[in-house]
């Protein structure tokens, strides 16, 4: 069963790369994929948000989402599942960046990108949330383009990151309601 899933996921990746990979597009996609490296860009945005009183709440919620996502995604699931990278299994997968040194499932780039972007979307103005989600999607798709993740890895990472952001949002909202019940009822 697992072999069938891996083969299906691998064939989807190979088809995606066959359709998408283009020499003139590759340098641009590499920029997007490296924007997600170690979540540094999202951490920098969270730090920037912390600097201003008006956006401090968003920065704190983004940090909470990123930390939860890292714990679940990178420290728990990657080690527990230990999925081999697609370029190590399928000869037809083109690896367009350096070898990755952790497990493939779930995608950490996708998880952190969606955790941060969904946090912006849920808590902030939509004029920032929608572009953040589009950037997260580009980073996630870039991981397929460069051949370091299966489609299932990217989808799982996006779901995990989104769920962690939603969880942080709900906990924060419940806490605010408990602290300020009259203000929350007026919404």
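^ structure tokens above, recovered residues below v
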């Amino acid at each position: 069963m697992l072999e069938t899933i891996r083969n299906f996921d691998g064939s989807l990746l190979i088809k995606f790369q066959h359709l998408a990979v283009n020499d003139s597009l590759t340098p641009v996609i590499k920029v997007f994929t490296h924007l997600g490296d170690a979540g540094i860009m999202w951490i920098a945005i969270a730090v920037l948000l912390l600097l201003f009183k008006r956006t401090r709440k968003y920065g704190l919620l983004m940090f909470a989402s990123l930390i939860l996502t890292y714990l679940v995604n990178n420290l728990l699931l990657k080690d527990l599942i230990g999925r081999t990278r697609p370029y190590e299994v399928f000869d037809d997968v083109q690896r367009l960046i350096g070898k990755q040194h952790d497990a493939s499932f779930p995608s950490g780039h996708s998880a952190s990108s969606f955790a941060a972007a969904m946090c912006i979307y849920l808590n902030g103005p939509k004029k920032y949330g929608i572009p953040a989600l589009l950037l997260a999607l580009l980073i996630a798709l870039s991981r397929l383009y460069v051949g370091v993740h299966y489609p299932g890895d990217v989808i799982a990472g996006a779901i995990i990151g989104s769920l962690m952001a939603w969880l942080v949002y709900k906990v924060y909202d419940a806490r605010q309601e408990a602290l300020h019940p009259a203000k929350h009822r007026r919404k």
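The chain is about 75% helix and 0% strand.
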